[in-house]
Amino acid sequence: QVQLVESGGGLVQPGGSLRLSCAVSGTIFSMNEMRWYRQAPGKQRELVASITSDGSTHYADPVKGRFTISRDNVKDTVFLQMNSLKVEDTAVYYCNAWLASLSWWGQGTQVTVSS
């Protein structure tokens, strides 16, 4: 069974940085696409960033220039480097992996930006 485990969340002050990691296990295939979503209390889950197997990336407008998504295909791990964090970035961040028409979700990691 495929499992996704996120790590790296925590409490940080505005302007600070965090690096999230998502490790994929239970498959012999590399994922076609990996994504980071986030969900704040009372809000819809939103796509933050994505990266394909060939390295193409996409970023939501609110995080462009501040966040960077990357992946290690050998280790089946995706990262999200978050810089210049704002209070509005506070949310639970979820890793999402795609292989053909199948997808899996991690359990989420809390990111809290507060002074």
State the main characteristics.
115 residues, mainly beta, 7-stranded mixed beta sheet, 4-stranded antiparallel beta sheet, 0% helix, 55% strand, globular
Please provide a written account of the structure.
It is a single chain. The protein is mainly β. Helices cover 0% and strands 55% of the residues. The protein is built from no helices and 11 strands.
Low-confidence stretches: none
pLDDT averaged over residues: 95
H-E string? EEEEEEEEEEE
Counting DSSP E segments of at least 2 residues, the number of strands comes to: 11
Cα separation of the termini = 40 Å
Secondary-structure-based class equals mainly beta
Q: How does the overall form come out from the CA principal axes?
A: globular
Helix percentage range: under 10%
Beta strand %: over 45%
What would you report as the Rg, rounded to the nearest angstrom?
A: 13 Å
Number of helices: 0
- Tell me the major beta sheet: 7 strands, mixed
